[in-house]
Amino acid sequence: MAIVSDLTAHTGYMLRMVSNAVSQEFARAVADEGVTVAEWVMLRSLYDNSAVAPSALASKMGMTRGAISKLADRLLEKELIERTGNPDDKRGHRLSLSDAGVEKVPVLARLADENDAAFFAVLSRKEHEGLRRLLHALIDKHRLSGIPVD
User: Fold this and answer.
1) What is the DSSP track for 26-56?
2) To 10 degrees, the CA torsion angle through 140, 144, 150, 11?
3) pLDDT for res 130
4) Exposure check for the chain: N or C terminus, fewer CB within 10 A?
């Protein structure tokens, strides 16, 4: 029988374990606010912009236009975003936050901040900064740019 490395011998496995724990706790927190993590990501992506074409949002978030359309439909139903015509393209439209969406983003951002603080509180400030530096190095080296939404 071949020698097979243990799952925990893989750094990727450990990263996924940590990522899942952080993400699942955050998902529970935002669910209490009536949104999913993917919806939060879209809301936060729209927060710094006045109105964005769905295709630009799809590119920024690393998602297909179809996935963006489904997310937008859910957020439209929740009245957290608005869809308006695109003056540059009569066939297109743009997405922006509604007033309720503008109010919701800081609430969700606070939950994200609290989730991060609670989970990483076991690390010293220096360790946390070191972890962030290492992760940024990996992101830069591998040219990772898609926004994780799941």
Assistant:
1) HHHHHHTTT--HHHHHHHHHHHT-S-B-HHH
2) -60
3) 97
4) N
CA distances from 65 to 17, 59, 62, 108 (A): 29, 8, 10, 24
Residue with tokens 């074409």, as numbered in its chain: 53
The phi and psi torsions of 29 (rounded to 5 degrees) equal: -65, -45
CB 70 within 8 A of CB 57: no
Per residue in 95-109, pLDDT tens? 999 999 999 999 999
- The candidate with the shortest Cα–Cα distance to 30, out of 41, 45, 19, 18, is 41
Nearest C-alpha neighbor of 25 from the set 116, 105, 109: 116
What is the dotted CATH code of the domain comprising 11-117? 1.10.10.10
Residue 8 predicted with pLDDT over 90: no
Q: What's the rounded Cα separation, in Å, for the pair 37 and 84?
A: 24
In whole angstroms, give the CA distance from residue 105 to residue 98: 11
pTM, entire model: 0.85
> How remote is the C-alpha of 47 from its chain's centroid?
13
- Tally of residues, the chain: 150
Token digits of residue 82: 């608005």
